[in-house]
Write a structure and sequence with these properties.
By secondary structure, this protein is mostly helical. Helices cover 58% and strands 0% of the residues. It has a domain at 56-150. Pfam families: DUF772 (PF05598).
């Protein structure tokens, strides 16, 4: 019979996380914006690790996760945690990290100086800018701005 069959599940696949997201995906903009040094001056990244205990997740990575959630209409920490496991964009954005639901909700409660409303406003504005300028135009502006700051 002429059917298309999938691969064997036991087969080992070698994949790169970089292949999960196309070059013109909005997630790349989120990644560039959060990794830019401007966020420190806004007061977003304030969490510090203690002397003892397990290290915390990077505030930048947690902020990326929340921006992704607001951008895509995912408000629940439990739903975000599920996306971390099944969604390739989120796996790429967090570089394979898999924080649990409690860590995600604690970040919102304790480690944000500006708060949840600002994340929502930031994500909303990001969505507006991408729709107005287009992805390539926004990426060009971000790259130009980063080059100017380095120079």
């Amino acid at each position: 019979m002429n059917y298309v069959f999938g691969k064997q599940r036991e087969q080992i696949l070698i994949e790169s996380i970089e292949e999960y997201v196309q070059d013109d995906n909005e997630v790349r903009v989120m990644d560039k914006l959060v990794d830019s040094p401007d966020l420190y001056s806004l007061g977003f990244l304030t969490a510090k690790n203690g002397e003892t205990g397990r290290p915390k997740y990077s505030p930048q990575d947690m902020l990326k996760l929340y921006i992704y959630g607001y951008y895509n209409g995912i408000r629940s920490s439990r739903k975000l945690q599920k996306q971390i496991i099944i969604n390739r964009e989120v796996i790429w954005l967090l570089k394979g990290l898999q924080p649990k639901q409690r860590a995600i909700s604690d970040f919102r409660k304790f480690r944000m100086v500006i708060g949840e409303v600002s994340i929502a406003i930031f994500a909303y504005n990001l969505k507006r800018v991408i729709s107005i300028m287009g992805f390539k135009g926004l990426m060009e502006r971000i790259i130009e701005k980063m080059k100017l700051k380095v120079a």
